[in-house]
Write a structure and sequence with these properties.
heterodimer, A: mainly beta, 5-stranded mixed beta sheet, 9 strands, 46% strand, B: mainly beta, 7-stranded mixed beta sheet, 4-stranded antiparallel beta sheet
């Protein structure tokens, strides 16, 4: 699976959009970009994932560049409860078994300030 | 709501005790589950892949005789930390794949005195 690079920390004001970048310059054609977040002392929470097209759900939007070498997770209206470590993970969608495992990097600690 | 349930959420026990942690998929079948460990201020590290009806696959450096994994049904995987010692104190987290994403339990904080 391709390696990802994220800034170690970011700050955002409550109510503003939080834009979290991720570089994955070695991503291959069949690899998806996944985003998870981990609030302190809890298990990771799935946010969103995508392959080529931009994606949006009730939690966030995922913008993937045309060359797929980077992406941005957007939380449109950040709240204090969005303070967490956000992980960007690239993984292939091969069939079954251990190919589904996720490799976590250090992620980005997003702190939403009042 | 939660799709993966993990129990217990916290365990405190004496050195030498064996501890069992359960991971259940709720309302879906999971032929494969994963066990992670997370030390303070570090990221999650995969320990092993739990396969229903067959032996678990352990990551390099993880002692299979110390961390026993049983995946006896399509909705339950258990991790037993045998003869636990203080260095085994950590946050243990399981996950299961449903549809196109993995979903995680809330973790078990294990403290060995």
């Amino acid at each position: 699976d391709a390696k990802t690079t994220q800034p170690p920390s970011m700050d955002c004001a409550e109510g503003r959009a939080a834009n979290l970048p991720c570089n994955h310059s070695t991503i291959s054609g069949n690899e998806y970009v996944y985003w998870y977040r981990q609030i302190h002392s809890q298990g990771p929470q799935y946010i969103i994932h995508g392959l080529k097209n931009n994606e949006t759900n009730e939690m966030a939007s995922l913008i993937i560049t045309e060359d797929r070498k980077s992406s941005t997770l957007i939380l449109p209206h950040a709240t204090l409860r969005d303070t967490a470590v956000y992980y960007c993970i690239v993984r292939g969608e091969n069939s079954g078994g251990s190919n589904y495992k996720l490799t976590f990097g250090k992620g980005t600690l997003l702190t939403v300030n009042p | 709501g939660a799709v993966v349930s993990q129990h217990p959420s916290r365990v405190i026990c004496k050195s030498g005790t064996s501890v069992k942690i359960e991971c259940r998929s709720l309302d879906f079948q999971a032929t494969t589950m994963f066990w992670y460990r997370q030390f303070p201020k570090q990221s999650l590290m995969l320990m092993a892949t739990s396969n229903e009806g067959s032996k678990a696959t352990y990551e390099q450096g993880v002692e299979k005789d110390k961390f026993l994994i049983n995946h006896a049904s399509l909705t339950l995987s258990t991790l037993t930390v045998t003869s636990a010692h203080p260095e085994d104190s950590s946050f243990y987290i399981c996950s299961a794949k449903r549809s196109t994403a993995q979903h995680f339990g809330d973790g078990t904080r294990l403290s060995i005195l």
